[in-house]
Amino acid sequence: MFAFYAKKNAQKMILKILNSALIIFAIFMGAKHGWNMLTAKPEMLEMFGKWNFNRNAVIINGAVTLLASVLILFPKTFVWGNFLMAAGILLIICLQLLSKDLKGVAIEIPFLLLNLVIIYLQHPLKSN
């Protein structure tokens, strides 16, 4: 009986470690892209420019993405941060679809799924 509980606890721990790694990756990518938008990097201005986003709109989108990355860190704001991040990714996917850029859509879909998976797995430090 003890072996059963030990195995179950080991599986939970492995799942929490995997979830933590996914969260760190999502935060890193969100912070990286958010910073690139906030500082109005030319590649971000070019990408959003094809959808008629001006410099200020890109900077605001970057600030929201950075905010989402910070919110994901804390258990109480974890879902809100993931929601904001997923909404931003979904916006980009919809804009890519409007311009019929299926390659761009294919690149963004795994990042949207990442946010949905880590919402499902919940924050690793959340008390049950």
Question: Quick recap of the structure?
Answer:
The protein has 128 residues and is mainly α. It has five helices and no strands.
Explain what the structure shows.
It is a single chain. With 128 residues, the chain is mainly α. The two termini are 23 Å apart. The protein has one domain (22-121). Helices cover 82% and strands 0% of the residues. It has five helices and no strands.
Please give the radius of gyration in angstroms. Answer: 17 Å
- Quaternary structure: single chain
H/E order of the elements?
A: HHHHH
Globally, the shape reads elongated
> Can you count the beta strands?
0
Distance between the terminal alpha carbons, to the nearest Å? 23 Å
Largest beta sheet, briefly? none
